[in-house]
Write a structure and sequence with these properties.
The complex is a heterodimer. By secondary structure, chain A is mainly alpha-helical. Chain A starts with a helix and ends with a helix. Helices cover 68% and strands 4% of the residues of chain A. The chains are: A mainly alpha, B alpha/beta.
């Protein structure tokens, strides 16, 4: 093995890749814009849509209640709804989103409420529809308020304090620092995105440096040189790994910048608390460093596997048809790792990608299981070494290199 | 010098089974002479040359190239060989200079030697005008000059040309032929494969006719014509490769 030859090949591949638009797109541009697009773009759009939906005074229908004019009047006067008597097609109107929700007031409701035992009020919504959900929430709050006032009135009439129905309140207070909450909130999605970008960053250079070279006829030119086959594979592998790590680095930098921008727009103070009492998630930098360390062997694994697979292909297009479906093989375990309730154990610590997803989630939320971390790092490094050995073996195989 | 001894290459194909692409081919190419390997498409020329350039490993037999065995010392063989074929393309995103420098470095040239070598090759091949232009922006002739410079950068003893003029216009093809002659003049061992009879007639000192993977005849143009009684190389070639043989 000659380090000079490996370095020469790596240097050439680096120069060549920097001039390749496809590689620049997949290793720098996409990873850099994905995170801001997700955090800022999608977040802003979602926030705008929800705010607009909350500002809207929902049109609702009142079914029955002709003998409860007080309730109907109160609904009208609340100013929170555009209440109107139900038409026969009220269900279709909700489905067509012309009406957001409906409240069914049973017969004799108001009279029964005076005595303290009214029949239930039924609320109708279109489940899964945001504005319908908001309307029905408002209706529920309205009737809960009405129930509490009735309770207080009945108790007062019997000479009892109103607080007897609610002798104490339950409050929830947070003790977790913002970065731990951020870890729990973002712990699932961050490793998922990093794993995906790590793969995508390696994909284009791996295909270009192997199948692409075969297709363009430069592979045979290279093979005519005295460079040993192992040195050629290692030189190319270093470039693919660079692509993968650059993609991860770009995504992390843009993620950091996005979170700072989001924090600034929330007016977050140094403790991570938003100025208006809200909360903006931050990420523990130590956890992030842990994630980076764990991603390194994954990048090696992806680079070696993609190099071996692309090497087998005759053309760039064929390599794409092999590497494309592999994205699903990456996404599925990464998504499983995001699911709540799936915890790291020794068996899962040996499952590639899923193990990284789970351990990164733990590290970002401040949990460090050193035994599992060692097992995952070791097993991933082992898989990566096996994949690299396979790539070297394939490169020595005439049937693969001169496959037509 | 090149000395091929019973070179054989068998490929395995799932549908067609065993394919004997080259079978027991032996020949000798001397320094300062051009050995022409003449054969139709699929005759086994490229496979033979790829074995000599150590791109393929012989199934049996061997060859000594510049004193090194193709099976035992492939790296040393490659260090002494310049290989040019239609399938040896250039890196489109590198400049002509970067392309030559890359192969110079792979051949172990240090930076001062490399700079001086690129300069002398650019003088020799009249490349200064496009030396810093990307290869994908070069004309076919410029690309051929770059390929030749890439092939010569380490000053190899043995030059292997595999149908180097296929698909080229007349002027570019002529410049290649002129270059091959110059290699002979410099005392290089040259092996030149072609299926173009006129090229073989003009260029080769010794012609080996290969057909169905076997070397059917070998000798100078005069020898071959005398042996077959043909008026030209084309008639001679047809007689040799026909099932009845030259007799």
């Amino acid at each position: 093995m000659s380090w000079h030859t490996i370095g020469t090949i790596y240097g050439k591949e680096l120069r060549d890749s920097v001039r390749d638009r496809r590689t620049l797109l997949s290793t720098i541009i996409i990873p850099t814009i994905v995170m801001p697009a997700l955090v800022l773009g999608l977040g802003k759009v979602a926030s705008a849509v929800i705010s607009k939906a909350k500002e809207e005074i929902p049109r609702i229908m009142v079914i029955g209640g002709s003998d409860s004019p007080g309730v109907r009047g109160e609904l009208q006067r609340s100013g929170r709804f555009k209440a109107e008597p139900a038409s026969a097609d009220w269900k279709s109107l909700i489905s067509e989103k012309k009406v957001r929700a409906a409240a069914e007031i049973p017969e004799g409701f108001e009279k029964a409420l005076e005595s303290g035992s009214a029949p239930p009020v039924t609320l109708y919504d279109y489940e899964g529809e945001l504005k319908s959900g908001l309307a029905v929430d408002q209706l529920r709050n309205f009737f809960i308020g009405m129930r509490e006032r009735a309770t207080a009135r009945l108790l007062t009439a019997r000479g009892l304090p109103a607080t007897i129905a609610r002798p104490f309140e339950v409050k929830i207070a947070n003790v977790a620092p913002p970065e731990k909450i951020g870890g729990n909130l973002l712990g699932g999605i961050v490793p998922y995105i990093i794993i995906l970008l790590c793969f995508m960053g390696a994909m284009s250079p791996a295909m270009d440096l192997t199948a692409g070279e075969k297709e363009r006829g430069t592979m045979e030119t290279l093979l005519c040189s005295p460079a040993a086959r192992t040195d050629i594979v290692l030189g190319k592998f270093c470039m693919v790994l660079t692509g993968s790590l650059v993609a991860v680095a770009c995504s992390l930098v843009s993620m950091g910048v996005s979170l700072v921008v989001v924090g600034a727009s929330f007016g977050v103070n140094p403790a991570g608390q938003a100025g208006h009492g809200g909360f903006a998630p931050t990420i523990d930098p130590v956890g992030m460093l842990g994630v980076l360390a764990m991603v390194a062997p994954v990048a090696v694994l992806f680079s070696a596997v993609l190099l071996a697979v692309s090497l087998f292909a005759k053309s760039f297009k064929e390599a794409q048809s092999y590497a494309g479906p592999m994205v699903f093989a990456i996404i599925i375990p990464a998504i499983v790792g995001m699911l709540p309730g799936i915890d790291l154990n020794l068996r899962l610590a040996l499952v590639p990608i899923l193990n990284i997803s789970l351990v990164c989630k733990e590290m970002l939320s401040g949990v460090w299981h050193w035994g599992y971390i060692s097992a995952i790092f070791g097993s991933t490094a082992l898989y990566a070494a096996a994949a690299l050995a396979l790539a070297v073996k394939m490169f020595r195989c005439e049937d693969v290199i001169f496959r037509t | 010098m090149i000395e091929a001894r019973l070179l054989t290459k068998v490929f395995h194909d799932k549908k067609r089974g065993q394919i004997r692409a080259v079978e027991a081919v032996s020949f000798r190419a001397e320094p300062g002479r051009i050995y022409g390997l003449l054969g139709a498409n699929g005759a086994g020329k490229t496979t033979t040359l790829r074995m000599l350039a150590t791109l393929l490993r012989p199934t049996s037999g061997t060859a000594a190239v510049a004193g090194h065995d193709v099976v035992g010392e492939p790296d040393k063989v490659r260090a002494n060989v310049g290989f040019l074929a239609t399938s040896t393309a250039l890196y489109a995103r590198l400049t002509s200079r970067e392309m030559i420098a890359y192969f110079g470095r792979l051949n172990g040239l240090d930076e001062p030697s490399l700079r001086s070598r690129i300069s002398s090759l650019a003088d020799e091949l009249d490349m200064h005008e496009f030396l810093d232009r990307r290869c994908d922006k070069l004309s076919t002739g410029m690309k051929q000059k770059t390929s030749i410079a890439r092939m010569l950068v380490h000053d190899p003893q043995v030059m292997i040309f595999d149908e180097p003029t296929v698909g080229l216009d007349v002027m570019t093809a002529r410049s290649i032929v002129r270059f091959v002659r110059e290699c002979r003049g410099r005392g290089k061992t040259v092996i030149y494969s072609t299926h173009v009879m006129s090229e073989a007639e003009k260029l080769c000192d010794v012609i080996g006719i290969i057909h169905d993977g076997k070397l059917r005849a070998e000798g100078s143009l005069a020898d071959l014509l005398a042996r077959t009684g043909g008026p030209d190389l084309e008639e001679c070639f047809v007689k040799i490769v026909s099932p009845e043989g030259p007799g």
